[in-house]
Amino acid sequence: MKRMIYSATAACLIATSALAAASTPRIEAGWVRATPPAARAGAAYFNLTNPGKAPDRLLGGSAPGVERVEVHEMSMTDGIMRMRPLTDGLVIPAGGTVALKPGGYHIMLIGLARPLKAGESLPLTLRFEKAGKVTVTLPIKTPPAAGAH
Amino acid sequence: MIRRRSLVLGGLAVAAAAAAGGGGLLYLRTKGGKPLIKIGGPFALSDVDGRTVTDRDLLGKPTLIYFGFTYCPEICPTTLTDIGQWLDRLGPKADRLNVIFITLDPERDTGPQIKRYLANFDPRIRGLTGSVEAVAAAAKAYRIYYRKVPLEAGEYTIDHSTAVYLFDKRGEFVAPIGYGSAPDRAVEQLTALLG
Q: A20-143, which class in CATH?
């Protein structure tokens, strides 16, 4: 009897996680930009896919050693770099993918307690309007030079 | 008639400059090649150890100037890394160049902050800061656009012109190097500048 309860519970757990997996945003090809010593801000990038049937919204998040994690959009017009916090979050359409990448949408890591060192990794918890919190561990990398691509 | 033709030519120059798109301003030039807009001018700032540096201290050597800030997560560290790579490729010739980083964020970028930050880049890059007014005056003289953008919790970031500017040894503006410029092209421009 006891065993049956266990397996029923296990089945329930599996079902719940399968359900969650169906609508949990997928974070792929993610990385964090390595920062020079004394830098107080960094950035994280990834492809964000919403497998759900309804749009979701990336609102922000948290990471150890980082005071605030915000969603920003960078743009470059006539040689002027502009940065805007997306205060209403970043919408990911149902079944769609949004790329967070250099020169565009990105996660801004503000108030670094220590430099983000290439070769290490950063556990990043992202907060979504519907999916709630999702944690991923992203590698910290030194990006190629701007003129190299 | 002559006047009309020069207007047409002027229009072409504007279009060409806009297409080149470096630095957020139009590099209008007369036929003689002299810029119509003056880029560069007097400034008085401090280096990372608190010593005064003015525009006059840069005369006698060609100069590369870049305006940025140390809280900048992407463009500034990338540009400073690029500059280091250009200097490496120039070899010993690079020692004949003033390489200047001027902060647009003097409130947070004190001398010691810039010193720690620049320690990760080419040691030939010299950082300058100053009072809010002194930095504003320098940015104005160099036609640099910048604007504070408030973030949550009293923090801010800064929108700014991203180009690197080149000057000859008399302090005359020569050319910009746009963000993301091909390294070969940038090294070519610097080689020409060094003569």
A: mainly beta
